[in-house]
Amino acid sequence: VEIAKRTGLSHSTVSAIVGDLERAGLVQTLGALASRAGRRPQLIGFRDDSYALLGVELGARHISVVLTDLRARVLAFEERRHPVRGDPAGTLALASELIDAVLSKERSALRRLLGIGVAVPSPVDSHAPGQLSELIFPAWRGLDVREHLLRRYLVPVVIDNDANLGALAERWWGL
After folding, report:
1. Considering the entire predicted model, what is its pTM?
2. Which of 100, 135, 110 has its CA nearest to residue 121?
């Protein structure tokens, strides 16, 4: 009822949308609220744990991997020092190892995984988003981080510059 009031959508439209979100596992009915007259309004709650998101940071000398719920609460975290700049094959292998480690810490995380976000200390070309800048990472010439992760985990992979993603995190969560 409150969603319909705030959005100006009809009750039937809101009910249809909520039904779709329930079938997708994103919301659940928490119960009925008290009402003075008519049908009792239903309280709907967001299911934070219905899906998981994975973040990977490739620094110049480290790899960090975090698994979160939909509210960005950390479920598992792994980090290792590694010479990322000069060892692309080792970096991809270690990144996969760390991803597998955080996924194994949370039951059914791989089945619930919506996607992977990757932060890289390199400009990202929208025409080749998985390839690191050859000027900054010459050893990575011809390698595609995005394709590697797509093939292995079969979920969408988004890559952006670490500074851009840091600014986005600051915007969403502050310090």
Report:
1. 0.82
2. 135
Pick the closest to residue 26 from 77, 64, 70, 90 (CA basis): 70
| Nearest residue to 122 (alpha-carbon basis) of 55, 53, 57, 54 | 57
Q: What is the pLDDT of residues 29-66, one digit of tens each?
A: 888 777 677 677 778 888 888 889 999 999 989 999 99
pLDDT confidence of residue 11: 87
- Residue 158 makes CB contacts below 8 A (sequence gap 6+) with 115, 116, 117, 118, 129
d(CA 79, CA 143): 22
Distance of CA 67 to the CA centre of its chain: 8
